Amino acid sequence: CKTDRKGETSYSLQVVCESHLRVVGTGGGDGDAFRVLELGKGKRLVKMPTRLIGFSDGWSFLQGHDVQLTQTSEAKRWLAQYLLSDRAYDQHGNPCGDLPEWVVADKPGWLDSGAYLLPNGEIIGDAGNVIVDLELQSKHADSSVSGTFDSWVENVGSLLHGNDTALLAVGASLASVLVGVLGVSGFGIHLYGQSSGGKTSSCYPAMSVLGSPEDRLSTWKSTPLGLTLLARCSNDALMTLDEVKLVEPKHIEAAIYSVFSQRSKMQGSKEGVFRPEYSWRNVVLSTGELAVDAFMRVKTGMDIDAGALVRLVQVRHRPFGNLHGFANGSAFADHLRAASCENFGAVGRWWIECLVKNKDEVRADFSKIKERWNGRGGHGQRQRVAEYFAVIEAALTLPSKTLKLDVKACQSVLDSFYAEWVDDFSKGGNGSHEEALLVERLEAVLSQQGKFLTKTANDQAYQQHELWGYFHDRGDVREYLVFPAVFRDRICGTIDSTVAAKLLAERGLLRRLPSGRNMTVALVAGGHPSKRRFYALSLPVVDDLDDEEVL
Question: Which pTM was predicted?
Fold first, then answer.
């Protein structure tokens, strides 16, 4: 302060803030500019919007961060000028150029700098000028630590040997951090099996990799929007959803697509502009007594899209195969849970540190592992899931020496899970999931003998509620002439009728006219001499049954 009295000039200092406050950076744009403040003895970093500076909301903002402001209006004016300035000052108050630009990290996971932001705000690696502003937080993304890396390997990791589901789940957990390094999309693993079979217990070691299992465990009992918010809180990490039966059946397909779209719903505001969009990337571990498609079919009578089942891969839970000396599965499950709840978080931090330091080597090693999974057979849907298993294999085998895991055993477990999934997904065939379901619906419709009349019958005398078509014998094959509406509504499902007809024709289950048209013409049907159009279909022949299986 400069004071002039009777021709004499004097200078003095006046306190404008009783606590440590220093502007260390600037950033923003499009009406969202901010200053990065260094506050308090701990010199914590806080983002302050410039629109608040100099107004009562701004002073309240600072006081909310325990900044002890002066109440002198003139001193507040000087402080506001300092906060709005683009000039940088060193620790001694000397000008040192312009304030550096900072970026905002508003979600956990991998940063552009190559560092990793934990959900609690800690950063592993060199993040550069980054201010953490996590608007969304959830205890289900816990990143706390209990025990040590070695205690986890000794007390939890050692119990994975001989227990396939637990090993797969741990692989999914390690993969949840790896996907961001590899630049691949997230995916999900749904474990299904009978109640009290150890599904949730098998997931405890997986959840303990990144934090407290009891906190990280969530359920399917949520809206699609709630799941997407949780996915954002768990970005580049594992998201665990227990008991699929808790979700509303009508919402399950939308929930799957919402989570694995990796982007929030596009929405507008009342001001006529788009609201900010959010993105994320996760690996999801799900459990349930039923497979997702079976659950939806039981509850709604409808099939779920194959696209949802490629995103959330369904594998059958395997009971504990190695009890490690415990009397029974229940005692082992209790011990596995307890050990996971005592030792958690350290392995995840170690794994992240390894990835931060060795990204290029990890990508090169993954390319070699991926070659083992390339060309795993047939349809593109199966190759896409094979790539998921390649990521899990990389997540298990790259750190296998330190985690004391057997590489060959890990590969064998993943190979067998994938083979089972392919068989179930394609219903034992070589085609896509949609094609397998199409044939199943065809069999179900054509097996309803009471819905069909002979080709020359008088349908005026038909006493049943609904007629689906006619049948006649062409040599050794019984051919069914199905009304087009029945074909579209009961056989095609969600597949376009033209595509469905082509798939069935390729299997020899639909007869085309010489012209190549999908519908054939019956010259006489139902006792009438008129021409009518039908789909000419026949049942598939099963030729791989053993003699003792034939009734």
Answer: 0.83
pLDDT tens digits for 126-172?
999 999 988 888 999 999 999 999 999 999 999 999 999 999 999 99
**On the CB side of 181, how many CA atoms lie within 13 Å of its CA?**
28
- H or E segment at 103? strand 103-105
- The residue among 398, 359, 111 whose CA lies nearest residue 235 is 111
Under 8 Å between Cβ of 367 and 360: no
DSSP 154: H
As a whole number of angstroms, the distance between CA 530 and CA 260 comes to: 52
- Report the SS3 class of residue 465: coil
Of 536, 328, 341, 331, nearest to 446 by C-alpha is 536
How far separated are the first and last CA of the chain, in Å rounded? 104
| Pick from 40-54, 263-277, 407-421: least confident | 263-277
Is 497 exposed, middle or buried, given 0-12, 13-18 or 19+ CB atoms closer than 10 A? Answer: middle
Query: pLDDT digit string (tens) for 279-292?
Result: 899 999 999 999 99
**Geometric angle at alpha carbon 486, from 484 and 490, rounded to 5°:** 130
- H-helix or E-strand containing 46? strand 44-49
Q: Give dist(CA 48, CA 26) in Å, integer.
A: 10
Q: DSSP assignment of 423-434, as one string?
A: HHHTTTSSS-HH
Evaluate whether 80 touches 6 at the Cβ level (below 8 Å): no
- List, in sequence order, every residue forming a beta bridge with 67; answer none if it has no partner: none
Q: What is the CA radius of gyration of the chain?
A: 32
Dist. CA 181–CA 528, nearest whole Å: 68
What residues have CB less than 8 Å from 131, skipping those under 6 apart? 25, 27, 34, 36, 45, 46, 47, 102, 103, 104, 105
- For residues 440 and 431, the answer to whether their CB atoms sit within 8 Å is no
pLDDT for 130: 94
Query: What is the Cα–Cα distance from 325 to 323, expressed in whole angstroms?
Result: 6
